[in-house]
Design brief:
With 131 residues, this protein is α+β, with helices and mostly antiparallel strands. It is built from three helices and eight strands, in the order H-E-H-E-E-E-E-E-E-H-E. The strands form two sheets. Strands 4, 5, 6, 7 and 8 form a five-stranded antiparallel sheet that branches. A three-stranded antiparallel sheet has the order 1-3-2, covered by helices on one side. The radius of gyration is 15 Å and the shape is globular.
Length: 131
């Protein structure tokens, strides 16, 4: 697999479109940090890291509205791809839907959202947009 972040986003996108409650994803440190951000920002219900096998797994419980069954995640868009990396400095960081969504940025200080990177005054690779 060449693009593990795209695989991560695609697994979540497919599980949301199929109305699954839980999705299993092979783990990596970057995916674990992205999962923590999704949980902190309220896009997923819960997560669990299973490290009982060599690579490990991430179990993500997806979040839906109780009555309408609409997912908390409406779009997951991969921005920086292996063939064309997208970087932004602290002044040109993207605002997703004028601040309603989040952009996940991989910086020298770790993986964080665009708002956190703006306050820390760091730039980095724009991994994806989530709203």
């Amino acid at each position: 697999m060449t693009d593990s972040v795209a695989d991560y986003l695609t697994r979540i996108r497919n599980a949301v479109s199929a109305k699954h409650k839980v999705v299993d994803i092979p783990a990596s440190n970057l995916k674990k940090e992205m999962t923590k951000i999704l949980f902190e920002k309220g896009y997923i219900l819960n997560y669990k890291f299973e490290d009982n096998i060599v690579q490990g797994n991430i179990k993500i419980a997806l979040k839906y509205h109780p009555q309408t069954k609409i997912s908390a995640i409406s779009k997951l868009i991969r921005v920086s791809k292996p063939g064309l990396r997208k970087y932004a400095n602290s002044t040109t960081l993207p605002r997703v839907i004028n601040g309603l969504g989040i952009a996940i940025i991989s910086t020298s200080k770790g993986v964080m959202t665009d708002k956190e990177a703006r306050t820390e005054k760091v730039g980095g690779e724009v991994l994806c947009y989530i709203y």
